[in-house]
Amino acid sequence: MTPFATVLARFARITRPRPKLNIWQWADSVRYLARGVSAKSRHGATRYSSSDAPHQRGVMESFTDPEVQTTVMIGASQVFGKTEIFNNVLGYFMDYRSGNAVVMYPTVDSSEKYSKKKLMPMIRSTPVLDALVPNSRSRDSGNTILVKEYTGGSIFLVGANSTSSLRGATGELLLADEIDSYEDSVGDEGDAVDLLWKRGESYPTAVQAVSSTPTIEGSSRIWSWFQMSDQRFWFVPCPHCGVHGLFKWSQESAVKTGPSYFVEWPKDKPAEAFIVCASCAKSIDDTQRLAMYFNGRWQATAPFTGIRGFHLNWIYCPWPAKKGYKNRLHQMAEEWERGKKKGEQSLKVIVNTGLCETWKIKLEDRPDHEALMLRLEDYPTEIPDPVVYLTASVDTQADRLEYEIQGWAIGEELYGIKTGKIFGNPHLADAWNQLDGILSGTFAHPCGVALRIGCTLIDSGGQHDAKAFAKPVYNFVRRRQGRYIFACKGSSELGSPLVVGRLQKNGIMLHSVGGDVAKSIIYERLSIMTPGPGYCHFGVGRGYDEEYFKQLTAEAVSINKGKRQWVKLRARNEGLDLRVYGHAAFELRNVNLQAVSDNLRKSAVPPPEEPKEPKTFILKPASEASLPPKPRRRVGFVKWV
Ligand SMILES: [Zn+2]
């Protein structure tokens, strides 16, 4: 389009008489669904009609309501119609309001996908919009996949994983989709949704919206947005008693508000699924369910403070069931049964994307210390044969050092080799000399090779006073870092990586250990019931007593004010801390257990005719094993005093 033609077009738009329409009325009158984007448009572009899914109307009205700052949408995938709503809002904005809009997806790639697969097909199939966007093939169209210029403004498509994609993008319409998949921080600039809102700061009338299916309880962004909103649900009337209530999957639903209708089916007969009205106890079939949906209405269940929230689960689905199912209720019940059989992860997906509720990690998921004690087994040798790599961890306390030596076998099957206490003031040398003796020791492997400890992490944080033990720990590790004996400190921040080392100015490589991820892995592995990958063994007579197992299971995840956190259920938890540091020590060496095992078996000493000194064997990770041997660093072996 020539500049003159653009001006003319803009003038024509401003002066043309147009009816006063809201977003869904606009969409009903001019919008088309591109060919193939829905079942309805399978054979060619079709008119959009909000009467197909009437819940979408109230959501769209929220975008033009002057009282609403932010619209929050939690909807089942393929049911809520979030993409159609975003499309309508953007189309209306282009046609009626003009100006800039910014749309954010988790990554630049997913933004491109939305642009190519949803936004452009909508624009091209809707004549009033097509006329506003120059043909992208013309040279001066100003159009790329991520910036769509139109007569009146621009639409910027940005990724929550990229600060550079946000640069230069400002607008008065700000849409953030799939926000539960955003990384914790965009680079080190902070929360992506906050950064997006900043792109609209110069517009007092900026319209904001967030959408997603929820994830884990306590860390779901969309769930916390919804909690701040007026929490609207789609209330539907019972055909028998007339009460207005909510479709819920079961009594355990996280949604506690409103009268309820629950989905039920006879055992192993999902095809016979039905709904029961909790008010009149009468049953409701799938045809009645659909009629109820079409007679529903949004109703707020919390006070309104500028944020309007909409929640719609899969039971409301207005679309027909997939092939092979009697009806929608049958399909849902069948998918649920299948998810249950496949296990927790599949069920979590249904809870998140179907029921649109957060997945709760139960406090009871904590391993049971008595059950773990029953696992104690007698190892026939100092080091059980499957073990090929050793790590150690040390916890500093006011009057003692506590330590554990862990043996790793292929598949990260873990053998508790020994745990113990060295009494003595950590500010004096004696306790450290004893520790040095243990860490420099060798352990006899049944194949005849003597194993050494491959990596050790020593807590320098101290439990009560972060600074208290840093100095003696640094003194100890300073000349032993060449032997992979390092200082560490725990990080309780959610989302911290398992282990990250940072060289400090004082020459100490300090490793930060992410407690949340380490403890989650450890508890998951303790719940494995049969020996094999990930299973944890404990040797009898090696310090693993009842107190140890109580410490190992001393913490649990709980949700406090919407935030997931680890809580200590008893004062002493050193056993768990030692496991956390031991796991991090293993992880930071990036050990290829298979390769280490192959090396070990190759070096196996045949049973001697007469007793000989055991051969010392320092195991290295596979990446180093193939390199020529480095000159031995003497400094690493100087005795510490
Ligand atoms: Zn009823």
Summarize the structure in words.
With 641 residues, this protein is of the alpha/beta class. The chain has a domain of 233 residues: Nucleotidyltransferase, domain 5, CATH 3.30.420. It is built from 20 helices and 28 strands. Helix 11 packs antiparallel against helix 12, helix 16 crosses helix 18 and helix 17 crosses helix 18. The longest helix is centred in the first third of the chain and has 18 residues. The C terminus is likely disordered. The chain binds zinc ion. The site of zinc ion has 8 residues, from loops.
Features:
elongated, Nucleotidyltransferase, domain 5, alpha/beta, 13-stranded mixed beta sheet, 20 helices, 641 residues
Topology:
Blueprint: H1 3-15, H2 23-30, E1 32-33, E2 46-47, H3 55-64, E3 70-75, H4 82-97, E4 101-105, H5 108-125, H6 127-130, E5 147-150, E6 153-159, H7 163-166, E7 173-176, H8 192-198, E8 207-212, H9 221-228, E9 232-237, E10 244-248, E11 260-264, E12 274-277, E13 283-284, H10 286-294, E14 297-300, E15 307-312, H11 328-342, H12 344-353, H13 369-373, E16 387-397, E17 400-409, E18 413-423, H14 429-439, E19 443-444, E20 449-451, E21 453-459, H15 470-478, E22 485-491, E23 499-503, E24 509-514, H16 515-526, E25 536-538, H17 546-552, E26 555-560, E27 563-568, H18 574-588, H19 593-602, E28 615-617, H20 622-625
Parallel strand pairs: 3-8, 3-15, 4-6, 4-7, 7-8, 9-15, 10-11, 16-21, 18-25, 20-28, 21-22, 22-24
Antiparallel strand pairs: 1-2, 5-6, 9-10, 9-14, 11-12, 12-13, 16-17, 17-18, 19-20, 23-24, 26-27
Helix pairs in contact: 2-4, 3-4, 11-12, 16-18, 17-18
